[in-house]
């Protein structure tokens, strides 16, 4: 019987699949020190981005044959080193596309219509519509950075909302742009024409800090910016400056730099204290449907790899 350690949240449907043929240790709150001490006993490891799986951990996992991620991103794993040790890595691209795309639209509407702030103030018995003069989504220019599975789904929904859709992605062919009715632009062109910009790219050397002061200066005065991928794609100081100056009307993010484990404390940052910055705790994909799909797919992939 193979041994599998699960070091982050995993839905019951995935755990049940794993337990059919394996011994499973489900410990989503395990410390790094304990993981380092125990990993030598396990054939497979499943973990999300909240638990970095670096060279030190992989090196101590002398029995490891597979690493699974019940999500899309694998930037928390030292992929090159793992593969050099013949360890297979499995993620679940596509399972959360609808969830994240829907959440993106929700953030977009919230920014333009002040829903969160209006709810908070009204529950404090402040009833005054004049504080919440908003903007329509229809007929606005939407710029999508990254036209993969999630970006494409956002484009389709935005078209239904009568938005003018632009996108940039050097790795997607022109047919895909046409399929989702998005005009292909360079990043610089997109930033200049968009009223609302939403980011859906993986974290790589190329995308790290891809939106900084230079790129923000290209954006329209009063533009809205959304980040639904990884915190590190934004220069947070430059974003805070743009909010303080009013160059950006508002920013929404589902991710930040230095995300803690669930229940952990955030690292203090200027951006978190900046007015018109709306943030949620990385819940874009956190729906029952998406997480059930992710848990099932990663569990099945791990079982197959251990045969």
How would you describe this structure in keywords?
D-isomer_2_OHA_DH_cat_dom; 7-stranded parallel beta sheet; Rossmann fold; 5-stranded parallel beta sheet; NAD binding; D-isomer_DH_CS1; 307 residues; alpha/beta; (S)-2-hydroxyglutarate dehydrogenase activity; single chain
Could you explain the architecture of this structure?
With 307 residues, this protein is of the alpha/beta class. It has two domains: 110 residues, NAD(P)-binding Rossmann-like Domain (Rossmann fold); 183 residues, Rossmann fold. It has twelve helices and twelve strands. The strands form two sheets. The protein has a seven-stranded parallel sheet, sandwiched between helices. β9, α10 and β10 form a beta-alpha-beta unit. α1 runs parallel beside α12 and α5 packs across α7. The longest helix has 18 residues. The mean pLDDT is 96.
Distance between the termini: 10 Å
Q: Would you tell me the structural class of the helices and strands? A: alpha/beta
Query: What is the CATH-assigned architecture of the largest domain?
Result: 3-Layer(aba) Sandwich
- How many β-strand runs? 12
CATH class of the largest domain: Alpha Beta
Tell me the count of domains.
2
Supply Rg: 21 Å
Strand content: 15-25%
CATH superfamily of the largest domain: NAD(P)-binding Rossmann-like Domain
Task: Give a concise summary.
This protein is an alpha/beta fold and 307 residues long. Helix content is 36%, strand content 16%. It has a 7-stranded parallel beta sheet, sandwiched between helices. Strands 2-1-3-4-5 form a 5-stranded parallel beta sheet.
